[in-house]
C-alpha cells in the first residue's frame, strides 16, 4: 500500500514536469474575459507578470466532520496545475480522537477522488464519482480565483454573460463542442 505522502509527491512531480512557462499576462489577454473577471485579474497585479502554469499552497486550520463534531486542527499542502489540463493534488494531516488521519484529494483528467486513512493504514473513506468531481471542480475553480487569479487568463472556462455581474457557469473538465482558444477540458460540466 502506497502512502498518501508518496502518492502526493509522485503526482505532484508528474504534473509539474508537464508544465511549461509561458508569456506574460497582457491587457489584451484581459480583453477576452468578462469585465468583472478582467478587473479582478488586473487588481491581483498579474498584468506584466508571467502566466501562472502551477502553484503550491500550504494551509492550516480547523475542520470538523459534521456540525456537532469536535474541531480538528489540520495542515495541508496542495499543488495545482493550470491551463488546458488542470489538476489538483491535496494532502491533509489531522488528528481525530487523538489518532492521525491522512486525507488525499486528487483532481486529474476527468476524475476526482478523496481517500481517508486512519493511522496511514486503515481506510475510512474512498470516494469518487460525478458528485465528487463536481465538488472538486468547484474547489479548483475557487483556487484559481482566490490563489492564482492570473491563471483565469488561460483557464478553459466558458464565460456566460448572465447579467452585468457576469458569472462563470459550469467550468472545468468537459470539452466544448468546438475548440476555441482559452477553452478546453475545463469547459462545461
UniProtKB/TrEMBL annotation:
Residues 169-189 are annotated as: Disordered. Residues 180-189 have a biased composition (Low complexity). InterPro entries: DUF6544. Pfam families: DUF6544 (PF20181). This is Uncharacterized protein. It comes from Pengzhenrongella frigida.
